[in-house]
Design goal:
Length: 78
Amino acid sequence: MHFACYCGQTPDRILEIGFTSERHMVVHFWCAACNRVLFISRTLDECAQLCPPLDTETETQSASEDARFLQSLGIAVS
Ligand SMILES: [Zn+2]
């Protein structure tokens, strides 16, 4: 996930991540350029959009291709 201060700087460090009662994720971070603490809040839906889950289908496919390759070399993969 990418955070940026209003000034455009990428935050120096994230101080705290929490959730509100409305299930919003709140991130406190420190901006060294502004010398102040800022916070942003995002809904969980927005988080999911920003951090899409890994494409497991691609993973499985390449794994079976690996197995086929190893079998062609005479190595059995259980
Ligand atoms: Zn700033």
